[in-house]
Amino acid sequence: MKLVTLIFSLSTIIISCHGLALDLDHGLSFSIFPLRLKSGLGGHYIPETSCSSWRLGVEAHNIIDWKTVPQECEDYVGNYLLGKQYREDSKAVTEEAYKYAKSLNLVGDGKDIWVFDIDETSLSNLPYYADHGFGVEKYNATAFNEWVDLGTAPALPESLKLYKRLLRLGFNIVFLTGRPDSQKDITLHNLKSVGFTTFQTLIVKDSTEYNGKTAVTYKSSERKKLEKNGYRIVGNIGDQWSDILGTNTGNRTFKLPDPMYYIS
């Protein structure tokens, strides 16, 4: 009996060392691969593993108040944004938003609204950031405003799809952006030129009223004004945590991915 027990124990150790575990209650076997920091199954170094962890921390709002993308993560962020995964991640968010929207019974008085942020939510500044290190370079207000003033930012495909679906469901759309009032006209032109043609209003930042205020303070205040005017914020979507934190955020919020910059 002791010999059988010893053999069973040795077998269990050998199996565990090879990354296998047995579910003795159900007769199932499955593979368990031990975590190897920055290495693959063969022990070889995998570049950018730490960058994917950094992006996870950013999206989960565990890493905050950062100024630039780490220099060593430029290629990682660029590959993510230009590749399939960024589109798939955005789709996962917008599909969940649409699923939620379909479950609602709207009053039908035109007061049910969905708030959309602009930059990296409705319009993409990826053409600009592709020329500026995908967020590795420090923010240059002059250069970025020159880009915005061109009015050529493309729509984010998944956000545009969600926007059209929400209109068909009977929602009114409100765009709430941190862009200044001096860029309102070009932003309106840009939105309409890429397909965002129907909406309740576009709210831009009054530089006098909100000078020195955070994005959270500004957007909370403007959402409060909407609700005071009788609107019901049913949904709220943005790429920054500052788009969906604070007060009067709406019944549900949705966060799109954005590893290029952080706005408090």
From TrEMBL:
Function according to Swiss-Prot or TrEMBL: May function as somatic storage protein during early seedling development.
Signal peptide region: 1-19
SUPFAM superfamilies listed in its UniProt record: HAD-like
InterPro entries according to UniProt: Acid_phosphat_B-like, Acid_phosphatase_pln, APS1/VSP, HAD-like_sf, HAD_sf
Organism: Stylosanthes scabra
Keyword Disulfide bond annotated: no
UniProt family annotation: Belongs to the APS1/VSP family.
Name of protein: Acid phosphatase
